[in-house]
Specification:
mainly alpha; single chain; about 70% helix; two-stranded antiparallel ribbon; about 425 residues; 4 strands
Amino acid sequence: MVESGAGELERLRARVAVLEAERRPRHRVRSLVAVVLVVVGCVLAPLGVVAAWTADTVGDTDRYVKTVAPLASDPDIRNAVANRVTSAVMDHLDLTALLSGAAPDQRPLLEKALGALGGSLEDSVRAFVHDKAQAVAASRAFATIWKDANRRVHSTVEKALTGSGGGAVRLDDGAVTLDVGPVVDQVKQRLVDEGMTVAGKIPELHTSITLLKSDDLDTYKTYFRILQLAGTWLPFVAVVLVAAGVLLAARRRRALVTGALGVAAATALLGIALRVFRAVYLDALPAGVSPAAAAAVYDALTRFLFTTVRMVVALGVVVALGAWLTGPGRRAGLVQRLWTSGIGAVRAVADGAGLRTGPVGPFVRRFRVWIGWVLVGAALLAYLLWSRPTGWVVVGLGLAVLFALAVVEFLAAEPEEGPGPGPGGASGVTRTA
């Protein structure tokens, strides 16, 4: 009988060993596929961010104009426009005929204006013209001129970055320029009004400032074009790949933490690369381009890109932290015990003060898990419906869910029957369900 039992045990052990041997290769293949999916999803995440930016900002004229519109009030842009307009006016202004061509009744006014500036005639006239150009650049009319000019030049920007935009659009040595001729016209009118009638003889000028300038634009525009075509699908694909890898993994919680942190790290590297490229780009600008104005344009065009980078990093960290805190790990368990103990202490104080939850408490205790999932789903829905979520929006939604879960735990804490108030005990001792 004993020998029969021992033989049966050996046969069971052999069968288990065979089953484990058959399962191990499957488990390894499944884990390998999960790792590949998560890694590919993490690699595609920053590319998805760039694709969304390319389709949203570069490929949409209205969005592009709205993005660069605030630059009309940027002091570096105004100064660059004033300098360029001043140079264009001075190149076509006949200084020898300036005073002789002025009307007798306007000559004292002109001499007074130029004399107050001091220096030579050319320096005085240049300073005078530059002052009028800065006044025009600071006016409300310049904001309108800036928007209209950028709307016309958008196809050039799109062609410079993606290669699309139509065959009629040309790039001059990898530069995207914006015509500020209307600013010249307004400066000429102000000069005439100030007594410099010779400025009225300046012909119609179409001078421009450089928005983008790089000899490497032709090298990168193919990649931008591919990302533009990918549009909003690439971020979705990245999320699906990471999710599929998590579902295939043997340890899904660990895979979720790893995938979320991987997406955050890869996207953070994109943000660092954009900062490095900014420094390299500005350092390589030719002498005729204002570095301050070029920096302002670069920052305006990439503002949405940086906002999205910070949002994805924050989202990855919040998801990873949530997955880790709800896990069975030792440190996570310590945090969970601190959480429940703190809420239990607050509930005990509330019970001692006479606070009762009535029928709400039993209801919350019964459906606590479902209520938790509803809160998480509501936060996810709010995030998806948010037009342009930022990193602070993600953090705010995470804190809101955390507070709501704390309220649920507070309501779900079940009071225990204990000794009444007096020297022997305290009422309101609670037990967290």
